[in-house]
Amino acid sequence: MSRLSPVLDQIDATLEDAVQRLFELLVVPSISTDPDFAQDCQKAATLLAEDLKSLGAEACVDQTPGHPMVIGHIPGPAPHLVFYGHYDVQPVDPIELWDNSPFTPQLEDTPNGKVIRARGSSDDKGQLMTFVEACRAWIAKHGALPCGVTFFFEGEEESGSPSLVPYLREKASELQGDIALICDTGLYGHDRPAIITQLRGLLGQEITIKAASKDLHSGMYGGIAANPLKVLSGILAGLHDDQNRVTIPGFYDGVPEVSAEQSAQWDSLKFDAGAFLGEVGLADPAGETDRKPLDMIWARPTCEINGVAGGYAGTGFKTVLPAQANAKISFRLVGNQDPLKIREAFQSQVRAMVPPDCDVIFEDHGAGPAVHMDTSSTFFTKASEALSEEWPEPAAFVGAGGSIPVAGYFKSELDLDAMLIGFARDDDSIHSPNEKYDLESFHKGIRSWARILDAVSD
Fold first, then answer.
1. What pLDDT sits at residue 1?
2. β-sheet bridge partners, residue 148
3. How far apart are CA 404 and CA 202, in angstroms?
4. Is 190 helix (H, G, I), strand (E, B) or coil?
5. N or C: which end of the chain has fewer CB within 10 A?
């Protein structure tokens, strides 16, 4: 019998206990964005630290200017893994759209099987606990882990991680390892595990165009006075050309082409753009006209208008020229695009389009580069093989359209490569009412990490 078999048997036999331990964490409303829940964030951190101590880890809760961090160590033979997760969750609004209390977790039967229903069940408490439970099963059957592990749990991921980089720098010596593991992602499709190999970066900008000292009557001032909404509309319309390419000078500097090998691997995933868009009531890809749909999501940069405000938007009609207008714009970045250079180029383009009677104010909302992983590493090879043993379909190396800044910070601050593996499904409703995590994802996620621990330490 292999050393893995009794661990998998232990996971299967104790699944009910593992679910109950997850429920104990899910009942804590650790909403990091709302100061009213600061004590709950502290409670969740303490609960996790005590759980790690029950495994034999040397664990503690570290205070930060914001919410606490949890760090724990279990020494062992090489390699040494650094596992990251976050215990904070999103707000529950709108509460009236929840079928049950968001922080009263329950197992629920659905047409697709049992699910764990609660805020944080998928993002990220359920995912975090898959790794903890895998370690628990190893220790229960063998008295130790097959390799060294450091646990690192954050409490501010859902509120911008303001304390993360300073903490990484302060605790750099404690967070050394051979690779970081991040479990804040999902499966590709329903039954195909995925390892994310590239993440887009993110740049956020807010612009405000100001003109007159107050809102103006359009009958008296229309035609002669500057209208900030008109100016802003022109700026926004000029951000893309007829082929949906971004017009900012130098924007595509550092954007690589997808390699033939990677393109073939992505083609094998048989992504159905029509079905993907059909789930949200759309049909036709709207990005760059000469690009494949998966390239648009994973390998191409974007410029998106996230919100526009100004003037009167209430019931009825009010004929005013607004005194100011505002827009929020985000850029998803790839390759070696420099977010700071793009921000400077964007602001220069906007300033050039603002007429003399108007002023523009910029507000920054973060700037992080894209992240790429070296899939030739034996960690990726062994993890892929381990995942393929557990799930009905073989593991896939995939990109991600979103951004997970901690992966980049592990590299920039600790020179630590990251491997992103998660078991969420697209219908988990993370950040939305009625969030859930499939019981199968939880169960097979624990088994998957147990297999990975075995594979990478063999």
1. 65
2. 80
3. 9
4. coil
5. N
Tell me if residue 363 falls in helix, strand or coil. strand
Tell me whether residue 165 is exposed, middle or buried, using C-beta atoms within 10 angstroms of its C-beta: 0 to 12, 13 to 18, 19 or more. middle
**pLDDT in the model for residue 257:** 95
Measured CA angle at 135 (ends 452, 387), to 5 deg:
20
pLDDT digit string (tens) for 150-188? 999 999 999 989 999 999 999 999 999 999 999 999 999
- Cα-based distances in Å from 128 to 26, 36, 247, 369: 12, 24, 41, 25
What band does 280 get if pLDDT is binned at 50, 70 and 90?
confident
Residue 457 C-alpha from the chain's centroid: 28
pLDDT at 431: 92
Helix-, strand-, coil-residue percentages of the chain, each rounded to 5: 35, 25, 40
**Is residue 324's pLDDT more than 70?**
yes
**How far from the centroid of its chain's Cα atoms is residue 157's Cα?**
9
d(CA 14, CA 6): 12
Q: Is 416 helix (H, G, I), strand (E, B) or coil?
A: coil
Q: What is the DSSP string of 230-252?
A: HHHHHHHHTTB-TTS-B-STTTT
Which pTM was predicted?
0.86
| Cβ atoms of 294 and 271 closer than 8 Å | yes
For tokens 């997808």, what's the residue? 258
